[in-house]
Amino acid sequence: MPVPFSADDTARLHETLAEVVADGATPGGVIVCGTVDGQKQVLTAGTVAPELGELAPTEHTTYDVASLTKVVATWPLIGQTLQAGLGDLDAPVRDVLPPMTGEAPSAEATLRHLLAHTSGLRASTRLDHYRGASAPLHELLCREPLEEETGRHRYINRGYILLGLALAHVNGVPLDELAGRFWQRLGMGSTVYGPVARGSHVAPTEQRIPGAPRTWGCVHDDNAALLGGVAGHAGVFSTPHDVAVYAAGLLDAYARGDVLGEWLRASLVPQAPIEPGLDRGVSWILAAGGHVAYHHGFTGTSLYLAPDAGRYLVICTNAVYYGAARTRIAPLRALALKTISASATWRSGVLDE
């Protein structure tokens, strides 16, 4: 039986969430701490947004989860596609894209390379540079030269854009529909690709131009916006409740050893070092000697898993409302990683030094 988060753990997390809100890092936020057997604690602080007065966020508030799209949509759908025999993890991405003419050096990167950010593709991605082009997007991206040889870790969004295009092509179903079917099976009824209707249940993000309306219900990421809000790297809207349902579903699958669980287990194998103590697995960042997997979203979201301990931790904020979310909520993310890592290393018998 997994041990629930202690009162001390949740008190520290709640206090730190309240502190980052009070410091102006984010209008508010929600943390969900849970276990594979359904134990769950929800912590909230602040408001949804100043425009909505004193309205507090709840586990049912909708957030733009940004790059959590990579692990909530693209990563599980790739696993599902591989299981169906529609692709090979170590085959070039060109095998699951529409046919291309001419040279396409970036198409030689494998699905594993793209998932693990070790593809060597050009890191800077500006889809607006392709406006007016006659060739399809996958071909334009694949014609770009590699910036370096495969193998070194560099966070590259265009790899996930290609994966999103590949998923739609090889499955013969639009990405948002394919993802929607997957989420429905897991009981994630409030998780969708945007846009979503603007309202008090949706946390707004950034005001991109002074005097202009704030981004609210539309994807924050510029490249995803150019793709109509549906992309492999960003575009998903979800609630803390649904992300927790997803996390618990992953942990349950891992414990049972079913197809999704085995895909998670295989994804916890380090693919490349990021920095001392952190490695990149297949999509996930790995910590605590591989006993913790996590991912962040640019808007101020995070998901942490400790599969062997049967625990998860979800953070949903709209910290990008005030600017650079990654620096403003860094103390909260650091505490979340420390908390889940301590439980994972204790459970696995690894000393936390």
UniProtKB/TrEMBL annotation:
Keywords: Hydrolase
Domain Beta-lactamase-related: 17-337
A Pfam family matched in the record: Beta-lactamase
Domain of life (superkingdom): Bacteria
Coiled-coil annotated residue ranges, if any: none
InterPro entries with a match to the protein in the record: Beta-lactam-related, Beta-lactam/transpept-like, Diverse_Enzym_Activities
Name used for this protein in its record: CubicO group peptidase (Beta-lactamase class C family)
